[in-house]
Design goal:
With 220 residues, the protein is α+β, with helices and mostly antiparallel strands. The protein is built from five helices and ten strands; from the N terminus they run αβββββαβαβαβββα.
Length: 220
Amino acid sequence: MGAGMMAIQHRYKWAKAAPMEGNTVRMKVLTLTTVLILLLALSFGAGCGSDAEYKSESESQAQVAVAAGGATGSTPGAVAPDFTLKNLAGGDLTLSDLRGKAVIVDFWDTWCPPCRRALPHLEELSETYEENLVVVGVAFGREGEEKVKAYIKENNLTFEMVLFDESSTIVQDFGGIQSIPTTFLIDANGIIVEKWVGGLDKETYEKAVVATISKKHKAS
């Protein structure tokens, strides 16, 4: 075979391979883009912090044997750790004073998007079930107390709000808050029923609240 024919065949083979290589590159780019979009979507719905994965624990999932003895802890089935923190309304709030009603304790802050999305749901629940439920927001206040107060006012949040105090052991007592929002649902006897890490939809919160309130009424 002549050198000219060999050169033509070589160019023909390269021309066939080039589109395939181009398609491979495009497929890799599309795959990478898809992965990035999925990661972004997941992070959008997860919490803010070093542990941004959404997690949910419930009493049925927990090892609740220790709860029978009244042990304090941060997992469902344990007695919720008591705390007293400054209430932004001007006084102090003590968790154990709220016994007799279901309580939601929500760790959040003004800079956290999932926290901001969850707060309106908690506000609605506090209004709908005010006779049986108390919502307590624990604001970390990284941007300052005045920022927290302004945010509460701008967004018409009326439920109980306390400010995190660095001298308090509340973070350690509640198992170390690695991501916000971290939200606890506590029953009328002070037992943790649910623990959620990451923002949720209102329906998920409400379903657990209704079940907890209903359990109290059945017991009484």
